[in-house]
Design goal:
about 500 residues; Aminopeptidase; 9-stranded mixed sheet; 6-stranded mixed sheet; binds ligand BES; binds manganese (II) ion; binds zinc ion
Length: about 500
């Protein structure tokens, strides 16, 4: 998607469809810039056409006298005082649907109007660019006949000279985040016979072309020498070799401690010997969504040139049954030295993440966030609205909550109290890999917490990483949250 900023009055600069975002007071500041006809038309016409500026309402108008615009799209933002960031995102999505319906490929927005909205210009422009970039994504990789494809191609924003740089930067950031989110979606949607651990490694290596990015991959042999017995036990039943991907972004000073992101990369989760039921098992191709979101976020961070250091770790393998697969009751030794009794081979995510957490310690991180489609219990608790948040550090947890709110990629925190840790006791190892039926998402998080000797947060995205049903597909979450979190950490 192309972008341009035009400085000066709108009527000289306009092109394509003029998109006017307005609250239910229907106040427009761009009017001065339009020609007389358009101006009078816009003052009278919306209400006559039944447009009241409610959230998500749109009105598409065409008239040759709108020139130089070919059309006008009014987009309702609802009452100013009850507006929230979610309503803004929702309104942008309906605006995109209307543009698609009328096959509009170029639009013009007016910063004068944006300034009438509740939020600051920077946030608005970044969100517009992010959401429209995300809307432009469509999966077609494995389709022979690609259906005729609608794309919004160009966005113009008219502005004043002093705002120009701010608007351009915000637009670029939004685009980088949207594309990061689209990369996460694509990796999630690709079938598991394409999107294997080696494929994720190859895609990650491509990021090495970006400025300040270096990518390396540990092989099974390397993991053996590091003692990652827990991670490797998950991979035992599979022909596909496991990979441990390390993406280093060094946009900060050399001595500056990094933030580490860890993404669960199970490219297919059959459950292993504790085999899952067949119905709905196809959805377990999304079990690498945490990995996808970390790879997508690393791409966005590098494209944004954030002034900080970030390391992305992706432990990735399949969870398959087979003659060499791990058995329930096997005891394995993790890289930390802690032994684990595997009571259910379907609780495999925590087994690969614990070794990645131990590995993360070598970077002396200021904070570590792991992202995983970890438990079905989290879907039961929070549905597909909020991701589960767990943390050993209140300050970090607050920062993650705030980032989620800002990006409208929300989280809800649950506890990891000692009382829950008790459920993981084992007679045969230092810890068991499951904690019984009660509080399944919490005990999964407690398991991870035992391996985190630094400020740590865990996001359970089992309910938020994809949608089921007719619109089945990956959502790209929580890339927007992670980017927002890192931006604020970097001082932006
Ligand atoms: N990948 C699944 C979690 C999952 C389930 C995500 C359903 C999305 C939808 C994970 O590896 C898993 O199987 N977890 C088990 C844990 C249990 C055995 C303690 C679960 O949630 O059932
Ligand atoms: Mn599983
Ligand atoms: Zn899994």
């Amino acid at each position: 998607m192309d972008f341009s900023i035009k400085i000066g009055p709108s009527e000289k600069l306009g092109k394509g469809c003029a998109v006017l975002l307005l609250h239910s007071n229907l106040k427009l500041s761009s009017l001065k810039g339009f020609n007389k006809f358009t101006n009078t038309f816009l003052k009278k016409s919306p209400r006559e056409n039944g447009f009241y500026g409610n959230t998500g309402e749109t009105l598409y108008l065409t008239n040759s006298l709108f020139a130089p615009f070919s059309s006008i799209l009014l987009v309702g933002m609802g009452e100013k005082n009850t507006m929230d960031r979610g309503k803004f995102v929702r309104a942008l999505n309906t605006a995109y649907d209307a543009l698609k319906k009328h096959n509009v490929t170029e639009i013009t927005l007016f910063s004068n109007d944006l300034k009438n909205l509740k939020y600051d210009l920077e946030f608005l422009v970044q969100t517009i660019s992010r959401v429209l970039t995300e809307s432009n994504y469509k999966y077609e990789n494995t389709l022979k006949t690609k259906p005729g494809r609608y794309l919004l191609k160009k966005i113009n924003i008219t502005s004043t000279l002093d705002e120009k740089i701010e608007i351009r930067e915000a637009f670029k950031r939004g685009k980088a985040i949207g594309e990061g989110s689209n990369l996460a979606k694509e990796l999630g949607n690709l079938p598991p016979n394409t999107c294997t651990p080696s494929f994720l490694a190859k895609k990650s290596k491509n990021l090495g072309r970006l400025k300040n990015v270096a990518v390396s991959v540990l092989s099974r042999k390397n993991m053996e020498s590091l003692g990652m017995g827990s991670l490797l036990s998950v991979s035992n039943g599979s022909y596909e070799p496991p990979q441990f991907i390390i993406i280093k972004y060094t946009g900060g000073r050399k001595t500056q401690k990094p933030v580490v992101l860890i993404g669960k990369g199970i490219t297919f989760d059959t459950g292993g010997i504790s085999l899952k039921p067949s119905s709905g098992m196809d959805e377990m191709k999304y079990d690498m969504s945490g990995a996808g979101s970390v790879i997508g976020t690393m791409q966005a961070v590098a494209r944004m040139n954030l002034p900080m250091n970030v390391i992305g770790l992706v432990p990735t393998c399949e969870n398959m049954p087979g003659g060499a697969a791990t058995r329930p009751s096997d005891v394995v030794r993790s890289m930390s030295g802690k032994t684990i009794e595997i009571l259910n081979t379907d609780a495999e995510g925590r087994l690969i993440l614990c070794d990645a957490l131990t590995y993360a310690a070598r970077f002396k991180p200021t904070a570590v966030i792991d992202v995983a489609t970890l438990t079905g219990a989290c879907v039961v608790a929070l549905g597909n609205v909020a991701s589960g948040l767990f943390s050993n550090n209140d300050e970090l947890a607050n920062q993650v909550e705030i980032a989620g709110e800002k990006a409208w990629d929300r989280v809800w925190r649950l506890p990891t109290w000692d009382d829950y840790h008790k459920q993981l006791e084992s007679n045969f190892a230092d810890v068991a890999n499951i904690g019984g039926r009660a509080a399944g998402s919490i005990t999964a998080a407690c398991f991870l917490e035992k391996f985190a000797n630094f400020p740590w947060a865990h996001l359970d995205i089992a309910g938020t990483a994809w949608v089921s049903g007719k619109a089945k597909g990956s959502t790209g979450r929580p890339v927007p949250l992670l980017c927002e979190f890192l931006m604020s950490k970097s001082g932006w």
